[in-house]
Structures
1.
Amino acid sequence: MAEEGLVVTHQFNGIHLVRRGGKAPGKLELIADRILWTSRTPGISAVEVATNTVTASQWSRAPRGFLLRLLREDGTVVKFLGFRDVDRKAIGEFLGHSDVALRDQRMCTKGTNYGDLDVEGSSVVFKVDGEQTFELPLDTISNAQLAGKNELALEFYQEDVGFSKQDESLVEIRFHIPDEAKGENAGEKRPTAAGLQDTILKKANIQPDAGEEVVRFDDMHCIVPRGRYGLELFDKYFKMHGKTHDYKILYLSVQGCYYLPKPDQIHVAFVVHISPPVRQGATTYPFLVFQLSMNEDLEVQLRMSEEALRKHPKLSADMRDTFPELFGTIFSSLANTKILKANPVGTSPEPFRSSAGAEAVRCSLKANDGWLYPLREHFFFINKPPTCLAHRDVHAVEFARVAQSMSGATNRNFDLIFHVKDGSTLHFSQIDRNEYNALFDFIRRHRISVRNIQRTQENDRLLEAKNAARVDAYLAKVDAGEPVGDDVLAEGEEEEEDEDFVASEESDVPEEFDEHYQAEGSGDEEAEEAGGGGGEKRKLVDSGDIVKKPKQEDEDEGDEEDREEQRRG
């Protein structure tokens, strides 16, 4: 609001202040000898521009309304957006009282990508045929580096506060600057890529990369973001060079490191937590996950002076160790942060160990399969998406589908649900039933509330009773030393006869049950001698080896059956 006693000549509502990272809505007032802008958003300071400090002003068309650009004596530029076309007259007359002419700035809309690049005031300006195409304020540039002999890459600060994931911002732009002008401008002297880099670094007050790297690790396997990266560790920052993306990250952005051995006992996931996160388009990565092999030994030489080594007691000029231990020691010392890892077995509080003796359990977060690490102060899930949850942020824990997993052998998994204090939930599913006791004991030791504690304890008792009732009789006898199987008869026990079994006196198949049976083919001659040749001889039919009885024997058997029926009657 204008001070008392001063007359507000004009007031414009809905005017945005164009600042680093975006726009802020507010209102603009023309008061005597100054321009005052006040924000409608709490926490944003007012901007006041004295007209006697303005050296130049420009009026140009913008995507939404018109843009007022004020260049001050100190080289800074202040821009206001949202004016109407009819507002130009009032603003031009107001600035005219201070002998500042409001000049119309024509913008080039040809779409040509070949023009002139130069530094004007506090901005990098790109022009085509003398008309401005766009400008890049120097205070938004975080770094300027040569991507080749004739290629200049400009990187920009990323403002994450107040922006959603859907918002888009410029992160990098590259210019190809040929050595000599061609065509109509042949022979014209132009600035080189190296010359423009020096000018931008100097005017943007950016400290160039000074000194050589402390150590370099080539072909690092990075799980998040996925790819192979070369890591260069400097004194105050580190660089990641990939096939398509490069990052420069200050150690001040490192919030912590995590040393997470994988259950295969071969690899270690080394996680770096950074804030603000790195970006690849609209995707942000607050965690960098490197996979290191424990079977690989390295020996490195650090390019550090004796004075620098005294600042880092854990470092020495020559170092040798396994890859995870060596990399973790060097990185944590340069970043001045400690590495968080599970406590050794036997320390207090007792660390988590799965049923297989590992430091993590296999599970799924939504549709992503990974590993959940219960640490001393955090729960950490890798690989995608890396998720860290502090114990102090957990309101309660709920064990789900535990009773169902006990009711039958078809469901051998359960779920673990974390209810966070901010109202959100994390649902870890497909955890093996054998990990239930270890997770439950760990959560109880760290005094984390369990929402369904009574039902969970009842499930424990039912499970123990069910396991106790499931006894293998054979194994029990073997453990007790009692005879089993054939050894039971070997102890002298007699085999009892089956009193209900009655053997038939005659058998239709004599060769199966009569041990004195003699084959008919060999006894034909004896039968003839005994019977005097008067008896009828039995014959063996070759086809199918079927034995047919004589007709007389059939009649005798029929008479015997009739007599038996008469006696019964």
2.
Amino acid sequence: MEYKVLINGELVNTKETFDVLNPASESVTGKAPHCTEEECDAAVKAAQKAFPGWRDTGIEERKKCLNAAMEILKKNSDLIATLLCQEQGKPKGGETDERAFVGASGEMAFCCSIINRALSLDPHEDVTLDSDNHKCTVHRRPIGAVAGILPWNYPVAMFFMKFAPAVVLGNTFVAKPSPFTPLATLKTCELIKDCFPPGVLNIVTSADAKFSCGAFLTGHPGIRKVSFTGSLPTGKAIMKSCADDVKRVTLELGGNDAAIIRKDCDVKKVAAGVFKGAFANTGQVCVAIKRCYVHSSIYDEFLKEIKDLATTAKVGDGMDPTTDYGPLNNKMQYDKVLSFIEDSQKEGGVIEAGGRAMDRKGYFIEPTIVSGLKEGARLVDEEQFGPVLPIIKFDDDDDAVNRANNSVFGLGGSVWSSDVEKANEMASRLQSGTVWVNEHLGNTNGAPFGGFKQSGLGRECGTADIAVWTETQSAKLAKKTFDLPAVTEEEASRTPEPAGDREYKMVIDGELVSGKETFDVINPATGEPFAKAPHCTEDDCDKAVNAALKAFPKWEATPLKERQQ
């Protein structure tokens, strides 16, 4: 099968290609086009050129174009699912098969639900002022030519999660898939290209070691917004690149999601739910369970149940209809996960199940359960993004919440308990963008998705997409012509009142604090000093930050009405 990039409505052959491997066999499943800088630049310029006309096309007409694309996707879902299975490794699954939730066929169904949510977007106007002379209206305006940089775990779904709302809201789009999984997305764009005017949809690919289309797009002045899903280090690099010309940026980065298992749960049932939440897509889900905290009173029972699930799971080629879990997607991730397993044993962990690469071609690792670790171990503190789960003891609910929150990440989390009221309360204290009770990875029906802390910046999905893919414009427009009031001579000559001998202090942890040094504050009307302000030291600033951190949990728990008072 031939694959081409899409630039300005035309399918383009590149001079060079690169191999895309099937992770189940390590054989070449297809050759993807490797774009040059000139081809990437042409894609951006095509998007820029198409933007004014697409922006001025009515939203209902734009929705018709996207709906036509969805119908084509439905007709070709088996083809795309097969390509996705072969390049990504996940089970293909069937439409009614339980594996469809995390498999390639399930990803196709998920794409349609994403598109349907985009079709329901309504960027309505808000009126903030309506007087005799003026009316002030808040509008949502499209940003311009935007870029979506896609991950390798859910490439087609992430394409539509960015592309669908972006174009419905009037932007033009340049997609850049991962070099590990470009084929299904390239074929998708080829199939739907005629649903849109030339330049509205463009896609470029590259073998990033030679030339990175992604880096080029984030630095291109013609791109006004970048949405990226992927690793934390790459997200930081993109953020730095976008800072040069203050591009808008949305980042969905890593996670180290914690599941807290209270002592009052149904152990067998919860173990099955946790296993699915941790090992979906072979653990290659940003918001999968990465750490499992289990109350000590049920720890041994829970450990036995989840070990049994790990040892009986069917791991294999995703095209085999009996496969539950496929391989890791690429050699880099395969090696990384194996290093996590090795380090966990060096740090005192006990391999309860799995713990080995499988003796076969492909990037297969046995589903692995590790006990005996705690905070400080690499497998607990970092994101493994693979089929390895540490099971960690706790004795106190509050301690479990604190330990779950003790992470630079904050993407998702869950609490499992028969006491729903208590579980809901604990879940509300998790510092995560999405929290669940008695499930993990469950459908949130288009709720905004993103992370706290270093798990990302901004939100995508649902109503959040309007904020993601538009600029806010406040327009105070005149209803009639009127004269501006003249400035009187007295008003023009008025000078500020002197500040007097008032003393100015810092506020740190509720206390007024004098600075050891001060600096002059200049009156702009006279050019003379009129007051002295305290000059903070580094130690003063550090105390202020620590005071704010210390006060946050109690203030967060304070009811809104009390905070407003």
3.
Amino acid sequence: MVTTRRKADADKSVSVNAPLSAEEEKELGNEEFEEIPFVTAMLTYLGYTVLIIFGHLADFRRKFVKSKVPKETGMAGFTPLYSDFESFYTRNLYTRIRDCWNRPIASMPGAHMDVVERVSDDYNWTMKRSGKLLNCLNLGSYNYLGFAENSGPCADAAVEAVARDGCTPAGPRMELGTQSVHVEAEELVADFLGKPAAMVVGMGFATNSTVIPSLIGKGGLIISDELNHTSLVLGCRLSGARIRVFKHNEAEDLEKVVRKAIIEGQPRTHRPWTKILIVVEGIYSMEGSICQLREIVAIKKKYRCYLYLDEAHSIGALGSSGRGVCEYWGIPPADVDVMMGTFTKSFGAAGGYIGAEQSLVDYIRTHAHSSMYATAMSAPVAQQVIAAVGQIAGRDGTDEGQKRIRVLKANAKYFRSKLKQLGFIVYGNDDSPVVPVLLFNPAKIAAFSRECLARNVGVVVVGYPATPIVASRARFCLSASHSREDLDHALRVVDEVGDILRLKYSQVHKHHRLSEILGSK
């Protein structure tokens, strides 16, 4: 069984400003979440059960033999600092396969990268460098438009900014930390987003975790998608507001939660909420799904809620001109109260931004901790933002930015469709540059990563607790810097490894041979 949603299927009873044409509607991708096969789910649970049993046996053995497990000493009578289960999981499950993460690279994260080879002679308790560099195809970095470069107009502009403004403003924005490059970046970002004003923050994670608490507090209600990013979850918790969650990307469930919250009011007192803030993402980076923005905006308007949209993965990667999920859906930016995004993905820089009404941006500047206390964004990073956004918007007088957007979209559709034809279970939307492939069994997480690296393909694998226990996956991130030859090579490697590990679980899509699909267009 497969759950499929066509992006054009919005609530027909609600009129939306700037509607898409019939031709544009057809261009919107489908979203697919194939059900996990029952036998596969049971075997996955069994795999984790076996690992946990052996973990307890290993812990029992460690009571009698010398172990590398760190222990708290001199703290008799104190509550342990470390969580029992987290420590157990780390030493008995994660440590076995931790060579699959934290791999250092010795190059820029372009279409190809140099991975520093590491070896361990004590079952991953310690790692050391072998002295070799592995040149790998990069399918893990968030380099959507290929701006993570060490040459070209953007890199040259960033170098010039160092000579002009130095490497750091050495202070927060509110205390002599604002440079002309910050003002220029904010004006350009606001214009690009179609918002009256914008502010930039030096860290993407801190944009969410420090701005949300400045928008809402005690007496308010936050309604958050159940799969929102950790930075959003942290920001919601720090706000002091009550938090409710709704099922991932399901507008019907969102409306039920909103309606119930309004009817019942605050706990115990039943007073009306001071405000209700709906928090969603543009592209969900672990699922590859795209926010159902039309329906969410309709609900926001109907119940007079505020909407906070995190476009970390969608800005630059979605929409005909890279302006994100609003452009993708044909939604006026004015319908979204707060637009947030990061510069670390599509723009090859660092930090984040907030786009909103001028009065709201002014308020956030004087209340968000990232603006009041954190050191401002460095000048070369801000200049990289200016150069990348300018190129995407065509301000450099070329269509290079638009070419990158078109190539990214074509790469995402091509790679995703071929994986489905090979028989893999692939999550998410056809237009998303994030392509998750389900691995399930815990042993296959490490095996897939290691086998791909042995064939010079660098991938990201993700398992519990970052995903549900039965939904471990490999997450491919496509880029405009990938050539068709790069993608075909990746497909050959993934197909070979998939056959070795028996990863072609799909019961919906017909399985094809690699030679058949690479010959089809």
4.
Amino acid sequence: MSPHRTCTTDPPVSELDALLDLYDAAGGSNWQSPWPVSTSANPCVGWTGVTCTLINNVTCHVTSLALKGEGLVGTVAPSFGNLTQLTSVDLSLNLLGGPLPPELGNLGRLTSMDLQTNLFTGTLPVTLSNLGSLTSCDIANNRFTGPLSTGWSALSNLDAHGNAFSGSLTPTLCQMTHLAFLSIFDNALTGSLPSCLGDLTSLVFLQAYANMLTGTLPASIGSARSLNHIDLSNNDLSGELPASLGYLDSLQLIELDGNVLSGQIPDSLGNATALTQLDLHKNSLYGTLPASLSNLIKLQVLELDGNALTGAIPASLGQLPALQTLFLFENVLSGSLPSAIFSAKKLHQLYAQENYLMGSLSMSATPTTTIHIVSLFHNSLTGPLPTGLCHIAGLQTLDLYDNLFTGRLPACLSSVTGIVEIDLHANIFEGPIPTAWQHLLSLQVVSLYNNFLSGTIPATLATNPYLYELFLDQNLFTGRLPANFSCSRLVQLMVQENFLSIELSLVFDAQRFPVLSSLGVSDNTPIDALSSITMSSTLQYVDMTEMQLMGTLPSQWLLAQRLVFLDVSSNLLTGHVPETVRKRWWRATK
């Protein structure tokens, strides 16, 4: 007969009293499943979450308490420490608060303790170091303060994230040689990572982001060969990345973004061939991208933005068969963008804006069709847009503004019917807006300002049902705005500095543009009188400078409460704007 089995006889009085104290201190009568304390004095029979075990065929003891999400509100009574035979306790997802009683240190048989997502406060009692059998401890999402105790030699799982623990991680951490899971993110921990970190040879998961850790990433980390996940982002770690990271052949994720790491990306990282995500963005890394990154055949996410990386983008990145996200923006990268990048089989997002890329944008006639976002703005790319863009069937966002692109807007973009945003402003494009773009019915943002585009504004563009922002200013457009111009979702309409004939009654029509908040029509020619125009109640920004406007502002405009910017300077208007109104407008006629 087994010496340990479930039982239904009465436990010791001290254990019964401990449960009754918990019931009273934690509002037991309001729990989701209240204990029948008035009808059953035996907690081993019919008390929710209580498990009893017959130990050595002698006494029935309470060995497990599972009250997750039962609605406990209050505190844990000191007598809880009398449940000395407990091996498992789960009080998670409740509203228990106050400090933990030191008597918890009496629970020497406890192997699993789950107190996460409560309101516990104060420091961890030093007596918890007596819990020598503890293998799993979850105290996440509470309000604990002070140092984080790490003296549990048998522990394999420690989750203490979302508290206010402070102080440094002492070398005693490395004595927990069975530790496999360590999650201590979102605290106020300081100091450096222990140099003995590599002694944790069982460690699989290390998550310590959003603290205030300093110092370098110890080279010994390469000895923690079981590591699968490292997230130390948003700290103040400095120094160079240790070459020993390349020894971690089980490592799948590295997140070290938001630190002050410097130096070059070690070539040895190419040996960590299990990597699926490498995130080093927002550091001070410099030098060229190592060619060895092309060895990471399982890599899905590569984020290197916000550094000072130089040199050319390796064409071999386009050969990574699993790559989905490539973030290289805000660096000092130069040279041309390799056409092979557009052939990465699973690429979804390409962000290489705000670099020093130059030359023409080239790609094969059949690029990867899975790309959703191409963002290359603030570079010095030249030449016409390649027709290969028109074959990226999944393209949703095309941001190529502030480059030196020339030629005409490609009519073939009309085949990319799911595109939502086209931003090509501040280039040297010429010619008309292609009439074929009438098929782009998903367009929400069109930004073409500051080019040399000409011709009339297509009527089909002016009735797009999803159009949210339309920027056509600073071009050479002529003629009148389309008579059927009507966009129920249009918020910003900018057509200033063209050669247009503006029908004011059209652009101020609240029925055509029921949510329009910003309107720019300056430096064009009005074809109807200002005096009869009603200011839409949705407009907040209006620019009408240099339009040869005459007469006075309509009196109704002076009552427009949402209008915060009106510029009608450099016109021929007369009259007076009250001071109270002038304070609401940045610039108005005098």
